[in-house]
# Entry
Amino acid sequence: MSQQTMQAVVFQAPGKFGLEERPVPQLQSETDAIVRVTLASICTSDLHIKHGSVPRAVPGTIVGHEIVGVIDQLGTAVAGFSVGDRVTVNVETFCGECFFCQRGWVNNCTDPHGGWALGCRIDGGQAAYVRVPFAQNGLNHIPNGLTDEQVLFTGDLLATGYWAAKISEIQSGDTVAILGAGPTGLCTLQCVRLYHPGHIVVIDPDTERLQLAKQMGADFVIDPTKEDPTSLLHSLTDGRGADIVLEVAGVKDTFQTAWKIARPNAVVCVVAMYDEAQMLPLPDMYGKNLVFKTGGVDASDCPAILEHIARGEIDVTPLLTHVYPLSKAMEAYELFESRRDHVIKVALKP
# Structure
């Protein structure tokens, strides 16, 4: 009997993705699940893989780490789930037992496939099926009544925004600046709102994305090519600067802007993934006493995110601007990378 195959988007070589026929994945461990993918999305991190900014990415791997679907097969050690359950898939693979997992730092799981492995070092979900290791940790039930579109970003973009807002120590009434109104920045905006800050200021040179940020809860938006963000932030804070800065853009000069617009003793949270090394100019920032928080998302709060979505407190469906069949994935990638046709996020439907 011939092995079943499926279409999948594959990282073929640095600078090249392609659509290939691949075997349908099978259970390899009693802790695995096989999920039939009903919707997957293209992430900026996929572009980082394509262009060589993720050194650990393995050529030949099926990409894709923003996934929802239906459980097709379950390993015997996976409890709390059944075949047929609708689930979101976590961006991170984690054992739940090591030193780091026990402290909620699942990005640093010490298992050989721990951390961000899915769609990077092991086959991901831009395909008809995906194998999810440590499925009891990597899957979350989709609440009744929610659509795939409502929960698609739970395991990655929203997990990132939720993590960033959580570690930034936002207090009620704070002035929070978010650098970047791309998909991750807008998800971060939605999560920051949960902490009831006094003002949320979103900074980005893209007028359309700033308009969307305003619709999604920003109090003020700034195009830094036309207006100095420092002036507005000082006017909101009696000249101090932002209480919290979240750097989600990761482009030229945004890291420098982040620490400059922060008030003394502020928290600067670096969410962005950079293509180039950044400089920390300690002599220039001497006396500001800033706290920097950086790193990969610890995506351990997906159940809480799904509860917020179910209660209507998070809604990121406006980000999903285009849906393509998986068979046209290369067209979808070209659109996403070129940022044509008002694209924000693109989903692939097997």
Remarks:
- The first helix runs from residue 44 to 50.
